[in-house]
Design brief:
twelve-stranded antiparallel barrel, Porin
């Protein structure tokens, strides 16, 4: 039998291919690298909050109170206030505003308001903190009708318990009065202490006092102090009764004005 030239050309090529496959078997396929592990999802705390992030807490409250008499004498006194307190593990900011009005018959006996902001930064793993504050006061029955004060400084938490905290602060700033004999801007220091005591889940007591001496004239100073007791009166805990007092003593006032300005009050508080 004759083999065609075409068949002769195919025969040795097939042998060569088989020999190559036998001598050099195909290398096993390299496994694909495993994908990197998927990081676990951050754990969630109450209300779905991510525990890996600094958790912010914020509380706001509105206060209102009034009292009066009708008969032999007609008097009326009212108070309205708003406070907001927000904090994280790294910082805290407080806002407050208060308006007071009083009258006796046709005569106005009190007309004043104040607005303030306080910002504090907590140093990591420490009881120390840094703060800055600013306040504007307006009062129709003071030796001044307007007053602006600012300050910055450091704080230290002397007591840090779940239900009791005590903080001391020192700093410096400036004050300027409008409408009085001391209208120029004056530098002043501050030294303060603040106490917060949660007596129970239904009751709370707070007190603070701040001493502001004038840097240029030490005989000029003022002391601002306040105290308050709050008790919840609703099952939901959003409605409270608050009684307290606020006093400011000024060593230097214009003739005809009192050094002390004491206010005591009772009000209803709504938390939201």
């Amino acid at each position: 039998m004759m083999i065609s030239d075409r068949g002769k050309r195919r025969f040795p090529a097939a042998l060569i291919l088989m020999a190559l496959l036998w001598l050099f078997p195909a290398a096993p396929g390299r496994a694909e690298p495993a994908p990197p592990p998927t990081p676990p999802a951050p754990a969630k705390g109450p209300a779905g909050a991510l525990t890996g992030r600094p958790r912010a807490r914020s509380t706001s409250r509105f206060e209102a109170g009034a009292n009066g008499t009708q008969g032999n004498s007609e008097t009326f006194d009212s108070l309205a206030a708003f406070k907001s307190d927000g904090r994280t593990e790294a910082m805290r900011i407080k806002l407050d505003a208060r308006y007071c009005y009083g009258s006796k018959g046709d005569q106005i006996t009190r007309n004043e308001y104040t607005i303030g902001v306080f910002n504090e930064w907590f140093l990591p793993e420490s009881r120390w903190s840094l703060f800055i504050q600013a306040r504007y006061d307006w009062d129709a029955f003071e030796s001044w009708f307007g007053r602006v004060s600012t300050a910055l400084g450091v704080g230290y938490k002397f007591i840090d318990l779940p239900r009791l905290t005590a903080v001391g602060r020192v700093g410096a700033g400036h004050i300027r009065e409008y409408g009085s004999e001391l209208t120029q801007s004056r530098p002043e220091c501050l030294a303060s202490t603040e106490l917060d005591w949660t007596i129970s889940d239904q009751q709370k007591f707070s007190a603070d006092a701040t001493y502001y001496p004038d840097l240029d004239r030490p005989r000029i100073y003022r002391v601002v102090s306040s105290t308050a007791y709050t008790a919840k009166i609703s099952a939901a805990g959003r409605l409270s009764l608050k009684v307290g007092a606020h006093n400011e003593y000024q060593s230097e006032v214009d003739p005809g004005f009192e050094h002390n300005d004491l206010k005591y009050y009772a009000s209803l508080v709504i938390d939201f």
